[in-house]
Design a protein that fits this description.
Layout lengths: L4 H6 L11 H19 L27 E5 L6 E5 L2 E6 L22
Antiparallel strand pairs: 1-2, 2-3
Length: 113
């Protein structure tokens, strides 16, 4: 009735540590509360550290809108500059090297030449 009869013959005293019958129930009733007591007696893990407070930085005050508009023309490389709805000039890329940033200058349109 043992799953391994050869092991029963080789180790007759240690093969089945609990005797059949009421001894198994008594040992089970003794070991179960001891196991439950040992598992409850263990010290719980320490609590996790408190999270760091989140610091929110207020954004700086935005400058007042200046309403500059730049309209680049990808075919010619010319950038038309408008300020508060009025045409100021254009930056064509032919400005003197000492102008940094380049100052917009009036450029005649093709129909005005």
């Amino acid at each position: 009735m043992f799953p391994f009869p050869l092991a029963k013959r080789a180790f007759p005293k240690i093969w089945f540590p609990f005797p059949r019958g009421k001894g198994l129930g008594v040992r089970f009733l003794i070991l179960l509360p001891l196991l439950a007591l040992a598992s409850c007696a263990a010290k719980p893990p320490p609590p996790p550290p408190a999270p760091e407070p989140i610091v929110y930085a207020t954004p700086p005050d935005a400058p007042p809108p200046d309403d500059w508009n730049l309209f680049p023309d990808p075919t010619t490389g010319q950038v038309d500059v408008y300020h508060q709805g009025n045409y100021v000039g254009s930056v064509t890329g032919n400005e003197p090297a000492n102008q940094d940033p380049p100052i917009p200058h009036a450029v005649p349109s093709p129909g005005e030449e």
